[in-house]
Amino acid sequence: MDQRIARTREAIFRAYAELLAQYDDVSQISVKELSQKAGVSRSTFYSHYQDMSELTRDLTAELAEHLIGIFAEHAERLYQPDGLNHALRQALSYLRSRGAVARQILLDESPEELLSPIVNTIENFVLEDYRSQHKPVENRLARSITLLWAYGIYGIIKEWFRDGCQDSTDEVVSNICSALASCGSLTGLQGTE
Asked: CATH number, domain at 2?
């Protein structure tokens, strides 16, 4: 990507985050105000994005890509408590660092745009893990395990953001791991213990 385009998009992203922190809802932000805050013209904004929804989708995709990177980095140890704990800590720290943008996406946008790429990635991890242990697994079961993990973790993180991220990252990670371990023992699935 051209450096000028990258700088313009970064200015737009930064202005979006600042205005979200101020207003707490993207519907209250106008393209005019965002453009002024970013130091670009409205026509420049529209040369990059059709509207605020497209900008939000772009930021959602960026968030998902970063989260996929975190889970991919820990893929081989995702079923081990220390691997999962480390991946979750990194993911929560990243989301917390994204502040109002993460809050907007987690609480007010469709989870499909954020979770769909993550679900597909984790599903591949599940299939590879079962196959590496020479355990038979149907694609449907792998998909169900993935959905349980992804939407369950999403739900806990969403509640954490709804409560203003008051609990520490360690407390949230512990809650997630305990919930996953309990689900695993209740359903007979191998989970984190």
From this structure: 1.10.10
